[in-house]
From TrEMBL:
This is Uncharacterized protein. Keywords: Signal. Residues 1-21 form the signal peptide. It comes from the Eukaryota. It comes from Heterodera trifolii.
Amino acid sequence: MRYNLLLLLILLSFLLPQIISLQFNWWHHHPKSRHKAINATIHKCCPTHAGTTTPLYCCADELFDNGPEFPQEMCKDNEGVEMTTILKTISCAQTEFHRQIGGVHSPTDICRNFCCDFLMNVEGSTKETACSRTCAKASFAIGTSIKKQLRELRRMGCAAAKTQFAALEDCLKGPAQYFNDISQRSSSRSANDDDDDDEQDVEMAKMRALNEVCRQRAEEEQNS
């Protein structure tokens, strides 16, 4: 009896993560060969419930979901997770996932919407375009290669504006360390200061710094 119980517990320890994962969107959208790496990445990078090591459901469900919604939207809206935490989670996941699958350590840099601003007018409109929306999503994609992201944007005709697309391409291929450095500088500035105004200043400084990468690249293209 005791032996059977022990055997059942061992079996459950292997099956439980699989059973739990079945409820997540990414389970059906990514090949089975990557499920182990995805699970490991979620447990390393997602914010957890207070006082536990259990990842927030919203993060575990959305981190590898390639749906049209803003990444980690549920975490932001339902759990009150701050944008800075979401960006750090995505940055961690991009790095960790590539390491887990034995890939080259070159995760997509998080340029958010800033590089995508260069694609706003590709279709001759001052409003947000399909290209800029796809670009914003590509910046956050974890389980998709940079090559595939760029191929999709080219397929949509987004590469028509060569200067803008070159800036975007550099932004997507940029070193992950850039974002990490910005985050560390921001954290050190706000570590001993809880004032909301100062925190907003840090966020604005980070946004400007990210935007600067793309702006400089675009200027180089125009002057070459």
